[in-house]
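Researcher: Here's the sequence for the chain we discussed earlier.
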Amino acid sequence: MAGRECYHCKQWVEEGEEHDCWTTTEAALTQGLSEELRDAWERLRETAASFGDQRIYASHKSIMFSRRSCYFFVRPKRSYLELCVFLGRTVKAAQIRRVDRVSKSKLAHFIQIRHRDEVEAPVMDWLREAYDSSDQSKAAAPAAPKTIPENTLLERVRAVLRGTVDYREKKMFGGITFMVDGKMCVSVGRERIMCRIDPAFWESALKHKGCRTVTMKDREYRGYVYVEESAVRTRRDLDYWIGLALAFNRKAAASSRTRR
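Model: Thanks. This is the structure I predict for it:
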């Protein structure tokens, strides 16, 4: 019978079968939009793409627009498009619903778009500002250090999760653990990450280079794996492992301690 193996989670998917994986596409995220919202989305995408070189891709429930880093993303909702624009300053305007500081130099501005006529100044001016500033760090960056800072992996994991899911950081397992929906998802330690994945994929996951079972007090924990930093050097590799953790997080049960 015809079918395919999902590149990301390695699960076999029969032809015509729906596959609940963390990955998605622009088409999948925008297929349910109303005519007005679709017009607004197409105008938004076309205008942003005209700014210049960038990468536009779908991740989880968002469509990301990125240069060296993501400068804004779109979450299609039933009645509006939620934009999150990363700027180096706080903008106060009627269109801005919320502003969150996400780093020392960046603030996330949340905007709701309900009609194509809203895809114009000043919103597009803010997007252009975010696009331009997202690459300024390249010219201003100091010479690369000879050794990788200890917090590099932690910051990379934050960058993947930021804007994709709501999370809480907690000191656990000798590092920083990212709690999603009240459940342990990913933990970052020294030169490795720990992922909580679907036990059904556990054995196949161990075949990947740099992956090993979490063992505590001589006990192997099925569904928990360590992945060495050397195995997640690229964004694509890091996305893969965090994607597996996010996919299982949606159906994993919270611990009794968390439920209380």
